[in-house]
Amino acid sequence: MTGVGGRSEAPGGTDAALLAAAIAATPTGIVISDPALPDCPIVFANPAFTAITGYGPDEVIGRNCRFLQGRDTDPEAVDRVRRAIAASRPVTVEMVNYRRDGTRFWNELRIAPVFGADERLSHFIGVQHDVTARHRAEEGQKRARRAADRANRTKSDFLATMSHEIRTPMNGMLGTLSLLSETGLSSEQRAYAETALRCGQDLLAIINDILDLSRIEAGMLRLGEAAFSLADTLRAVLDLAAPAAAAKAIGLSVMIDPALPPVLRGDAQRLRQVVLNLVDNAVKFTAIGGVTIRADAAGAVADGTLQLRIAVIDTGIGIPRAVQARLFRRWTQADASIAGRFGGSGLGLTICRRLVKLMRGAITLESEPGHGATFTVTLPLAVAHTSTTIPPEGRILPTPTPMPAATETARGTGQGARILLAEDSRANQIVAAAILRRAGHVVTVVEDGEEAVARAAGGGFDLVLMDVQMPRRTGIEATEAIRALPPPAGRVPIVAMTASDLPEDRDRCLAAGMDGFITKPANAATLLAAVTGTLAASTPAVSTDAPPPSGLIDDGVVAEMEAAVGAVRMPQLIAIFAEETESRLARLGQAIAACDRATIAHLAHGMRSAAGTFGATALTQAARALEQCCAEGNEAALRGAYAPVPGLAVASLAALRARTTSSGQDPTGS
Ligand SMILES: Cc1cc2nc3c(=O)[nH]c(=O)nc-3n(C[C@H](O)[C@H](O)[C@H](O)COP(=O)(O)O)c2cc1C
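Above are the sequence and the flavin mononucleotide SMILES. Below is the predicted complex in structure-token form.
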């Protein structure tokens, strides 16, 4: 007998009858066909072939094996077989075949050329194996997986929708509680209101985590892509984490490699979320020492892309090796050993890992118990041209794009701004209107988009705060209608207020002609910052007569100071502070122009310390950021850090003066 499946000879002296018996007993189908005959017909078929196909040897000998094929046979598999046979090569395919009774089966077919002693092609051998059962099992598994995926998506959709729905009433609840705690309450009542507010805020943080994770899992999270300043982004993290670090008297600093390009492209908001989460955790677990954010490049810039590396280094309690592996897994919180370390929903690190993965990056952890921990995020980001304008979404706060002045705005006239508030939720109307009125603005409330357009058409507003989901006309439709109005009514700045923070929703708002975007629930500081920012951007001249934005001054600190020095001395102290601040500002401006780091650091330090004494929180933070920047940042970062300082100084002084005036004191101290 000739060799089978290759060029080797059959073992010399093998008994032909034994080989025939073995082939007859083989439990897989075997056929031999002869390529020397027309259409390569079958010349031999074993009993297993009959068992699999239902065709007896007499019915198949002399026919080409293709008669087993039918409607569901994959033509591509047949083509592979055809090409292998033409090239005298072995081939393995799986294809649908049909039995004699017409039923389908999956045939795992292996064909090999058989060469004669003269090394010429003599026959083909085909081995058939019925793998229908395996296919059925695989199909079943696939179906189950698809069903599970569908169920998971439905669950995630449900969670995403519900979380979104929950945020709207939460907005009303938190706003009302915050207003309540500012009314004349007994200390016991205030403690209750503040506890309720804190719990509400914790709940909101958990809802946000769930919303994020379900969005990621449902594949609904779209990353933004815009130019952003890395220094701005990290400074925002610093600002947000600073109060917690200060409360524990630990250090918090950022070190940016000056060699890093100042403007990158990517999703700054998500990057900030990741770093903030890591910094928050680090602060929580550091009792002595501090937390440092270090940013540098993990490799050289290639194809305009850089591997950005951000390490969050703490001197805290460290994390045992056994716990590290479990740390990024979902619901790790259930593990009591870590529950203490990571408060909240326990989803923070999982979200960080998923977000970083979405950004095509990686996150690693190095830690030893007692020796702190370092979380390192590495991700590829495109380098933007230094002259690139940073769009609003690339900035830290919802800073609106500047637009030409619509009317003589509040800042220009020195009066409170005339704000049209379009919001259908009663609770949200009350909260937002109260916050705005308290800050000195004049508020007109409308309940739907139709009314908003009608009122805006009448003119006389400096700003419109526009809810997005409203009856009759959505905020988007109303904005488009307002933008179609002739100036000045059609040019009024519009800031969106929405419970959604999806980038596509934000894009829709901006595309409709809105100038800014705030996500509900917005606290007083965010709301007022958006209003003040928009008004400032829409007015060329900045007047110091503007109503002071709230959140500038920590009333508690001022009250303590008053108690310590006596109310009568306050105006005098404020006058001294004002004089010092103005002098520092003038020198700071010169030092910035000369990029004189030592002088800037000295002046910023002085300003920080004085502002802290007077409870000028925002100014303290800005001065601190400027001071830190002197040691760590490049020139662009330095200028960026300086930018908010003069405005905040002027506004803080105005707020402090207004405070003493309203309490019956003469701010001049005379
Ligand atoms: C030895 C041998 C066994 C084969 N066994 C099968 C088989 O079990 N089922 C099948 O669909 N095709 C089988 N074929 C493939 C077909 O006979 C044929 O080569 C294929 O359909 C491609 O050629 P065609 O385009 O001329 O049909 C076998 C071919 C050879 C040479």
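The chain has a mean pLDDT of 80.
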